[in-house]
Amino acid sequence: MMMRRRVFGLIFVAIMAVVLVAGMPGCGKPVKIDITPPYLRDLAEQLNFYIGTAVGYGSQTFPNNSQYMRTLKREFNAVVAEYTMKWGTIRPDRETFNYRPGDELLDFAENNKMMVRGHTLSWHQSVPAWVENGNFPRDEAISLLQDHINKVVGRWKGRIREWDVVNEVIRDDLTGQTGENPRRGNSVWERSIGADWVEIAFRAAAEADPDALLFYNDYGIERKSRKQDAVYALIQDLQGKGVKIDGVGFQGHFVCGNVPSEEELKASLDRFAGLGLRVQFTEVDIRIKKPVTPEKLTLQAKEYERIIKVALEHPACDAVLFWGVDDGHSWINSWDKNYGAPLLFDSWYDRKPAYYAVRDYLLAEIERRQGGEEGEENEKKEAQDG
Ligand code: 9MR
Questions:
Q1: What is the CA(82)–ligand 1 centre distance, in A?
Q2: pLDDT tens, position by position, for the chain (386 residues)?
Q3: Ligand 1 atom 20, closest CA
Q4: CA-to-CA distance for 187 and 180, rounded, in angstroms?
Q5: Is residue 285 lining ligand 1, measured as CB closer than 6 Å?
Q6: Which of 4, 139, 177, 378 gives a 20 to 30 Å CA spacing to 66?
């Protein structure tokens, strides 16, 4: 009897959910979702490239939402935790270590042959209150930071290919005045340790996993700007001190219509690759000012294609990661309600023009490279014959 009641209860909830979704304004989406191959991940693999996404955690996303999971597995060959590997999740209070969501993502990635980026060992946000308000003296703050990096990197040693060691140090509002401090003051690490916390973090990560690739990650550096200059100077300074740093992540949080030109993007990658670094686009999304129209979605698709093109063509770049799978679960929705639809899949996990533009570009690139190889072989043959 109890069992039957529960079954009826579940059926009722399911029917209500369907009615609710169908009745929501703007929910006239046909149920048919395009999932025909080829898939981004298979094309990326043929190009020795990573097409990845940030992965949420909870009832609506990983690992519980079956549609989310299907799309994730089918389309991507790289993942990064959107928040579960940050301080806030891993160490909510001094005594609690919460590695489980990170463990789950790693198991999933390994089962599905995906590369993993680790994000992020230090940042001014997502710092738990006990750290933020701890008023730790310098020595204790250094120990805390080193200990955290040592434990987290150590726990997943050999399983995480690359880590964002330091995230977003440089301010957005630089004026160029002489003597100006380009670094954020609102960071607990900056306050309690001082500027050398950045090298302390990199050195700790290198020690904990000498084989992991170590990245500096930031936004607003995708075209030449004072901020980009300051990041460049910061990295040069680290290199001058003999600190191991392998790459720079260009987050790529863009507004539709304002994505830098191909030349600007390329020049930015070139600039940092010139320091001997790897470069990647690590958190790409292109938010659209509402209302979202077909014209804006077409423009967004062109801008996504531009990013993929620049990344694929660049010898120092082997990855583009999007900051989320679908529009329904993007951070943009809560961050600024005037913007939306930033990703490749809509809220129904259906492919958007941006998806097709990225896929078409990958397909064309495979053809170009095959054409190139065949061309080279023909040339060799002709030379031999002649
Ligand atoms: O998208 C992330 C959001 O879900 C989290 O609540 C937030 C705080 O942890 O961080 C967001 O991701 C940020 C990323 O870690 C660093 N670059 C900017 C991203 C958007 O804010």
A1: 6
A2: 444 555 455 444 444 443 334 334 445 676 789 999 999 999 999 999 999 999 999 999 999 999 999 999 999 999 999 999 999 999 999 999 999 999 999 999 999 999 999 999 999 999 999 999 999 999 999 999 999 999 999 999 999 999 999 999 999 999 999 999 999 999 999 999 999 999 999 999 999 999 999 999 999 999 999 999 999 999 999 999 999 999 999 999 999 999 999 999 999 999 999 999 999 999 999 999 999 999 999 999 999 999 999 999 999 999 999 999 999 999 999 999 999 999 999 999 999 999 999 999 999 999 999 998 877 777 777 777 75
A3: 331
A4: 17
A5: no
A6: 4
Range 106-142 burial, b when 16+ CB lie within 10 A, else e: bebbeeeebbbbbbbbbbbeebbeebbebebeeeebb
- 40-378: CATH topology is TIM Barrel (3.20.20)
Please tell me the distance between residue 35's alpha carbon and the centre of ligand 1 in angstroms. Answer: 28
Whose CA is closest to 353, among 313, 289, 288, 295? 295
Q: Is the CB of 251 under 6 A from ligand 1?
A: yes
From the list 75, 82, 222, 283, the catalytic residue is 283
Q: Which residues contact 271 (CB under 8 A, 6 or more apart)?
A: 224, 228, 232
> Shortest CA distance to 314 belongs to which of 267, 356, 251, 354?
267
Distance, in Å, from the CA atom of 318 to the CA atom of 21, rounded to the nearest integer, reads: 39
Please tell me the pTM assigned to this model.
0.92
Q: 86 alpha carbon to ligand 1 midpoint, in Å?
A: 10
Q: Catalytic pick from 75, 82, 168, 365?
A: 168
Interacting residues of 275 by C-beta distance below 8 A, sequence separation 6+:
232, 235, 236, 239
Catalytic annotation on 168? yes
- Where along the chain do its domains lie? 40-378
283: annotated active-site residue: yes
Binding site membership of 217 for ligand 1 (Cβ less than 6 Å): no
Ligand 1 geometric centre to CA of 130 (Å): 20
Verify whether ligand 1 is closer than 6 Å to residue 126 (CB atom). Answer: yes
